[in-house]
């Protein structure tokens, strides 16, 4: 090897290492070799501009590597990718993994705790720091290169019933973190934490503190913001979905619409000030969080170029809003619904009191797990299709005064469901295609590519590639199977992502407690 | 309120009972609550029987003297209601029936073990599982549970409480 080659090698290595530092401005135009937020970028479209994988060659995809966490928990997190490194999480854990080989670079484990370990949605990155929320409500800042703790701050009191699964959203030096908590009457909080110091910059409360003077929510607490929001740099607005009110099934003690629960809120990321709010489910009594991704697109609507926000909400309705002001442009059901009497002038479904939880039970569609849920959808700008993992399902809901007014305050049971990947025309709300994926509800998110491929998964552990414009199957692979033998439950629990390294496009998806990477064969 | 004439021991027992109820309620915290069988008795069994034999179409597959004999002795309350709406759990409902027309000309009829978009797995008489690629053959799956799922869109809440009340008489 010549001296020059050695120098280049060293330079190349140091370039790769320094590329692990993410300039917040890169978030505005994520490089091809990265996946910098839960959604990849700020829009929430989960759409890759990479063109290596096409409908014609997707059938040649082969598994490049598999990373086993060794934990029992299913991967529900979206990996983030920067500088050739993947960061993947489960509750209390984060791993840094080489994005080419799956070699483990480091692993950080939060101390054991008794908080609720329901799942984890992913990490965030800013400069050379990676952020992890923990079930016991810490935000831990880790050195991206070696996993050493830079600082560790408490973001809420887990003894009061808060827990954290959130993949933070970084906007400039703001690390926006949301909390969870359904079993106690707790106000919904989104916190902005200083990316460098861990200091709290502001807190947005979606509902007031209980017992205080602010009665704007009608007595409701809740409205937790446990999923990752989206951001419009031109408007400087962050969009976040808020969760259900508490008490959850007892609506009698919290009359009115209960703002801002089950809502999409637009916030100024520098101040935390509410700019506008839109309620997907006024006066929810069915646990239908509106935490689903508020997807942003600039696209034609009724012949006019508009700044749109789209959400396929857990309550079964697809909403299109003008994201400059939160005004409704379209509301249409995308799954089986029987709980609304109609749509009001603001574009909000009107709850039918006959479907409020009752002593002897009422049959409600959708069920508690919803017409969709945390699994992220994708918007394909080429076809104008909003593709979501949907469920047509029913549940029975109960409430009687003896159930009280604290936490769940009622009972409900899922009855049955059918799972689909469903493509919605954003201009009309009409279903363009419907691809069955099994009984119950799906858990895989959706990724679309610029070349017209849709990646997702079914309920049986198959990773699927569909043709985006008609939903037909192009390729599938049963994860966790060798021949016909099952080697562990490998059901897909996250949204697929994509990045390009050395001119090769990778598609990475979580199955069971492993990550799998696929690419076309090397030429 | 009338004056109580209770002994000290009775008073102490009542106080203890109230404390006990309070402790139990607090122990529940914000957790999901439960449903008592008595909560579900709002229906009309006669109307339920009419629906069962008429609009509901239940009698196409079920009968009080056959598979449903004694159902209310085996399931009570919300367990009976859930079993009625969509039978899963134990014992497992009958498996869907699969008919396969193999390329060899052979026809196989067997219970379905599992299925996805690409594969059908059937149970052989020996108990072994045999997997078939859907793309390689013609097949038909008859799933009696489909009727239960379709019924969910047809029930009014009164219908389901009435059918529950009727099934609750089959002890």
Show the helix and strand layout.
The complex is a heterodimer of chains A (523) and B (171).
Chain A: H1 3-18, E1 47-48, E2 62-68, E3 80-82, E4 85-90, E5 93-98, E6 104-109, E7 124-126, E8 129-133, E9 138-143, E10 149-154, E11 169-171, E12 174-178, E13 189-194, E14 200-205, E15 221-222, E16 230-232, E17 237-241, E18 245-246, E19 263-267, E20 274-279, E21 295-301, E22 304-312, E23 317-322, E24 327-333, E25 340-343, E26 349-351, E27 362-364, E28 378-380, E29 385-398, E30 411-425, E31 431-439, E32 447-449, E33 453-457, E34 462-467, E35 473-478, E36 481-482, E37 485-486, E38 497-501, E39 504-511, E40 514-519
Parallel strand pairs in A: 1-32
Antiparallel strand pairs in A: 2-40, 3-4, 4-5, 5-6, 7-8, 8-9, 9-10, 11-12, 12-13, 13-14, 15-18, 16-17, 17-19, 19-20, 21-22, 22-23, 23-24, 25-26, 27-29, 28-29, 29-30, 30-31, 32-33, 33-34, 34-35, 36-37, 38-39, 39-40
Chain B: H1 8-28, H2 45-53, H3 71-74, H4 77-85, E1 97-101, E2 107-115, E3 119-123, E4 129-133, E5 138-142, H5 145-152, H6 157-167
Antiparallel strand pairs in B: 1-2, 1-5, 2-3, 3-4
Helix pairs in contact in B: 2-6, 4-6
Please explain how this structure is put together:
The complex is a heterodimer of chains A (523) and B (171). Chain A has 523 residues and is mainly beta. Helices cover 3% and strands 41% of the residues of chain A. In chain A, the strands form eleven sheets. Chain A has a five-stranded mixed sheet with strand order 1-32-33-34-35, with no helix packed on it. In chain A, strands 27, 28, 29, 30 and 31 form a five-stranded antiparallel sheet that branches. A four-stranded antiparallel sheet of chain A has the order 2-40-39-38, with no helix packed on it. Chain A is globular. In chain A, 57% of the residues are buried. Chain B has 171 residues and is α+β, with helices and mostly antiparallel strands. Chain B has two domains: 37-91 and 146-167, no CATH class; 97-142, SH3 type barrels. Chain B has helices at residues 8-28, 45-53, 71-74, 77-85, 145-152, 157-167; strands at 97-101, 107-115, 119-123, 129-133, 138-142. Chain B is elongated and about 90 Å long. The chains are: A mainly beta (523), B alpha+beta (171). At the A-B interface, strand 29, strand 30 and strand 31 of A face helix 4, helix 5 and helix 6 of B.
